[in-house]
Amino acid sequence: MTTEHAGGAGRTAGARHQRRLAWTLALTGAFLVVEVAGGLWTGSLALLADAGHMLTDVGAIALSFLAVRIAQRPPSPLHTYGFLRTEILAALVNGAVLLVMAGAILVEAWRRLWAPTEVSGGVMLAVALGGLAVNLLAMWLLHEGAAESLNLRGAYLEVLGDALASIAVIAAAVVIQTTGLRVADPIASGLIGLFMVPRTLALIRQAVHVLMEGAPPHLDVREIEQALAAVPGVQAVHDLHVWTLTSGKDALSAHAVVTDRAPTEEITQALHALVHERFGIEHATIQLEPAAPRPADQGQTPPRDRDRICGTSSGTICVAAPAADRAAGNGG
Q1: Which of 11, 164, 223, 263 is deepest in the core (most CB within 10 A)?
Q2: How far is Cα 268 from Cα 61, in angstroms, rounded to an integer?
Q3: At residue 250, what are phi and psi to the nearest 5 degrees?
Q4: For residues 274 and 227, what is the distance between their CA atoms, to the nearest angstrom?
Q5: Looking only at Cα atoms, what is the longest distance across the chain?
Q6: Which residues of 272-310 are buried (b: 16+ CB within 10 A; e: fewer)?
Q7: Do residues 151 and 67 touch, judged by C-beta distance below 8 A?
């Protein structure tokens, strides 16, 4: 019994928001030029730190956009799942770049804390206000996608960090303008760096968890096992694995032990409906196995001598078939 497998790689969560990602890339790229020029003119480390952060924003968003496009390529004999993991790799790279940038900002802020430099507060304030406006608009563009895609969440965190950096720069500029206290500049820079570190580490942990094929955080594997075992005709479930292909696309494989003469077609449909409708898992591969023979059935062909017949729905179902049935199917 075989039916066609529908769907393929399909669209990822990131692909649904790639137009907004492109607009964000254009906005941040344009303002980056303005902020670098302003930082060099004023001599503000906080402004240059914000510009450096925005530079990583541009690179990260460009990488995220490229990853979204690559992830839409169809599966091939060499890449049977397609290129879905490209978005997760992009999130990991973005996290690593952010962590390095935060470290560099903290080191330079510490150096300037003891040797503050002359800063033009007025220009610094004007550029920071413009940067904040651009970042708030970029956050609005990415907010919805960040809730669905780890790749877009990495880009969103980049922009969020830059928005808060702009606020720190604005505060430092006001202090410098009103009091002349130049140490406000490295203090603001240090706060930017400290804010970036924990969020960056969280992003890296999430990306590594997916690449290590850990169970999706929003799914309870024990609950899935109990739900599968509760399907009529299923005695037990073992070798259950649940993992994430990319954000919004989870996969499952398991072995289900079924009772003798169980209606395998109905069980197949029930198992797939359960994992898809209740747990939102698109790709499921479940192998049906007959229960161990009872003493009265010792004369029958043991399960290990049976062939397996596989059918496909939203995933794959394999059910053991008696050798006698196999012989009948081969014409004796």
Answers
A1: 164
A2: 42
A3: -105, 160
A4: 8
A5: 98
A6: bebbbeebebbbbbbbbbbeeeeeeeeeeeeeeebeebe
A7: yes
Q: How far apart are CA 242 and CA 249, in angstroms?
A: 11
DSSP-derived letter for residue 295 is: G
Place of tokens 């902020």: 35
Report the predicted TM-score, pTM, of the whole model to 2 decimal places: 0.67
Pair 148, 248: CB distance under 8 Å? yes
How crowded is residue 32: how many other Cβ atoms within 10 Å of its Cβ?
Answer: 20
Query: Over the stretch 34-47, which tens digit does the pLDDT of each residue have?
Result: 777 777 777 766 66
**CB-CB contact of 91 with 203 (8 Å):** yes
Assess contact for 169 and 44: CB atoms under 8 A.
yes
**pLDDT tens digits, one per residue of 162-217:** 787 778 778 888 887 788 777 887 888 788 788 778 878 888 898 899 889 899 88
Using CA atoms, how far apart are residues 286 and 240, in angstroms rounded to an integer? Answer: 9
Q: Output phi, psi for 164, to 5 deg.
A: -70, -30
